Amino acid sequence: MSDIKELEENEVGQVVELVDDRAPSDDEMDEDVDVSEQVEEEQIVLDLSNNSWTYLEHGDSVFVVERHPKLPLVVSGSADHTAKLWTTHKQPPVVVTTIDHKESVITAKFTADGNYVITADMAGLLQVHRTKNGEKWTKVGDVEEVEEIHWIATHPSQNYFAFGANDGSVWVYQIEGNDLTQLMTGFSHTLDCNAGVFLEDEETIQLVTASDDATVVCWNAITGQPIYKLAPIDFKGIESPWVVLSAQGHMVAVGGRDGQLAIINHQTHKVVNTLQVINNDDHDSLSIEALAWCESMPLLAVGVVHGDVFLFETQQWRLRKSWSTEAHEDYENAITQLQFEPKSHVLVGSSTNGKVYRWDARSGTEMFVGVGHNMPVFDFAIMDDGKLITAGDEGVCLVFNPREQATQSQ
Question: Which parts are the WD repeats (predicted)?
Fold first, then answer.
């Protein structure tokens, strides 16, 4: 697919009407404005200290936002039973396609070439759409095999995708043109399959999955046979409900609801380390919600429900830094997502306190705080131009431009 640097309005579908979200002047701030009337008219409530660049509105909570690998385009999934594909490089955004679902859209992924987008909802409906140039998306097919889908993973280089379900099952499909081919179904997990990731392996297509039943399984995604399965006995007797998974090279990190972190050497199939990231009498605050590997430094970032971020150096697995996010007056400050900017020491994180952050992982210094949401931020995407796209509980995706703001402040 050819790269498209500019997606013009006349090339795509619906244009979303947005209000002027520029910062008000001093004169405007002095005017007697009835904020409640504005909110009622716009049907959206944004933080008055909003420093976002622009935004796009859904009809209900937005749970996921995923970036296109080549274009200034994202897909967002919402409780309004839709997934929207929309542009991020212009004000206002342009909605290219709206995909209708049966229930809340909670997960979405693009294939590595950007030619396909896969979306799934809480009713177990998964849909695949195809494009040739990013401008028009047509349906390839759908899959409806399980009661509820928890996650989707796409292969880092080939057109394979996988998903995990509430019954513990794992499914892998291949996309060829307009055809979906089921490659495997795995039933090794006995409880919810909460996370999965494809590994970069030149010889085989391998997928690692994690479950509430305290097991981690590596699958041959072509044959459906487990390559190895790790149970509590392999984790030094720790029986942790695993909820999040991340891989880099031959190392796999898995995090549990009880604050346990385990590191697996994929080459040896062995658990090389287990850590209790946080200790707290309030067990509900222990859950590890996000993991992120740094490409430029030997670091793994861990985010927990309690609102803390921990940075571990990955050679000796010692804690290097930790910090906490501030709590919202109405919401907790749980970390919902973490991601390092590509080949950078800059860590981006989102929280239920309604903010998105950029930190310098070398020092833990706060570099940028994106404000504007008045409810939790569930997800975000990092664009090539540095923009941050957020998914908010109030039904809004905000677009932040930290680099532009940094330039203006100099």
Answer: 55-86, 328-369
Residue 405, in any domain of the structure: yes
Kindly give, in sequence order, each residue whose CB lies less than 8 Å from that of residue 315, ignoring residues fewer than 6 positions away.
298
Q: Is residue 381 part of a domain?
A: yes
Chain centre distance of CA 148? 18
Query: Helix, strand, coil % (nearest 5) of the chain?
Result: 10, 50, 45
Nearest-angstrom CA–CA distance, 232 and 260? 12
Return d(Cα 397, Cα 23) in angstroms, integer: 18
What's the token pair of residue 206?
């391998």
Please, what is the average pLDDT of the chain? 89
Q: Which two tokens stand for residue 26?
A: 């001093």
Number of domains in the chain: 1
> What's the CATH number where 351 sits?
2.130.10.10
- Choose among 276, 317, 287, 277: nearest CA to 299: 317
Instruction: Determine the Cα–Cα distance for residues 78 and 64; give it in Å rounded to an integer.
Output: 7
The closest alpha carbon to 382, from 335, 336, 349, belongs to 349
Give CA angle at 385 (380, 391), nearest 5°: 15
> Residue 409 — pLDDT band, cuts 50, 70, 90?
low
Q: In whole angstroms, what is the distance from residue 307 CA to residue 311 CA?
A: 14
Per-residue pLDDT tens digits for 87-114: 999 999 999 999 999 999 999 999 999 9
Cβ neighbours around 60 below 10 Å, total: 14
AA letter at 291: L
